[in-house]
Design a protein that fits this description.
Number of strands: 4
Mean pLDDT: 93
Oligomer: single chain
Radius of gyration: 14 Å
Strand content: 25-35%
Low-confidence stretches: none
Strand order of the largest sheet: 1-4-3-2
Order of helices and strands: EHHEEE
Structural class: alpha+beta
Length: 97
């Protein structure tokens, strides 16, 4: 299947990568981007791999998510023969929440 990134999702990955590079260095940034590419390959092979996203269950389309690494996940939906990645979420909790 074809995989398409929404501009907001692209920006979220780029911001996360910049933040990781600033805090942990270029190697950690490259590891994140490699994990994102690996996840893309997995989704192309099996689009239903990610479970339905419970935080978006009331949306008009069926959003799914897949964990990229222990700190991030991709949020996507299947639109015909296209996997549309709509966001990239950090999984760290806000300690004040």
């Amino acid at each position: 299947m074809k995989l398409k990134w929404d501009d907001m999702a692209k920006a979220a990955v780029q911001e996360t990568a910049r933040s990781i590079q600033r805090r942990f260095g270029a190697r950690s940034c490259k590891e994140l981007l490699s994990e994102v590419r690996r996840t893309e390959r997995l989704l192309r092979q099996n689009p239903n791999l990610g479970p339905k996203e419970p935080l978006l269950e009331d949306a008009t389309v069926e959003y799914r998510s897949i964990v990229v690494n222990r700190l991030n996940k991709l949020v996507y939906w299947i639109n015909g023969d296209v996997i549309e990645v709509v966001d990239f979420w950090e999984l760290r909790r806000n300690p004040e929440a």
